[in-house]
């Protein structure tokens, strides 16, 4: 990154600079700790807001149904723009062309404009303020940090409990209450409102509350739904020929990347999910899914070297405050070796 002038810069130039920083961070996350990046971010409130919203746009484009965010826009136009922009970004990353940073920056700015129209919506890290009118739209973005949970009181009286390193957008209006899970895990205590459905979306998969408490978690592209109280109707936009399923308290379901649903499963449910009490519980889960979850709870970079290791099945309980202990004990359970390189852990199959 070149040194940037501290003088006032118009919004378009800030957007391009934000896109360049974001692409730099995609290649090397440690840049976020650099003085140069921090100095740029602190130039003005607008710098910070534009950067965070553009970062959100990049994650959101791959994680939610964009059509649901854009009322009055033709679906074909949305998908055409989104696919064009994403393909340009992907090519820039994969081929490392000389002009790739310029192309990718322009594409990323365009993607942000497609999704948000260039508007700077508020980003929150703490409890949301209560809106002054019931009909006010709430289009907010919430993000928790690594190993940090978060509680948000929504405008309708519903409670949102966000798991570690998770992101959601909240979009309320007078007709509906839509939540878009960008990544991670969230539990909802839904306030009853017969006139406004409460619906959670994740990559074309849908969970609609029928006055309830339920948990949603994305794990390597899959969506898991657990119902703790009341009922939840689950559906898939990609498998629209299949009937929806209604879950009741004590039931769970897994929805695959292609939208296919597992059989309804029973789960041991309490007033809270295990993750809210610092525990991660797995039953016959692929080790790759377990490691995927652990990365939200630790600053360690954890990698699996072999596909055969990824497919190993794990059953057990993990205390999130003792992840290092669990990793050290893993070779006692499986024929594995844990290689340590600073804050990086590589899980390899023992020969």
Automatic annotation (TrEMBL):
InterPro entries: FecR (IPR006860), Ferrdict_sens_TM (IPR012373). It comes from the Bacteria. One of its GO terms (molecular function) is sigma factor antagonist activity. The keyword Membrane applies. This is FecR protein domain-containing protein. The keyword Glycosyltransferase does not apply. The chain crosses the membrane at residues 97-121. Residues 143-233 form the FecR protein domain. Keywords: Membrane, Transmembrane, Transmembrane helix.
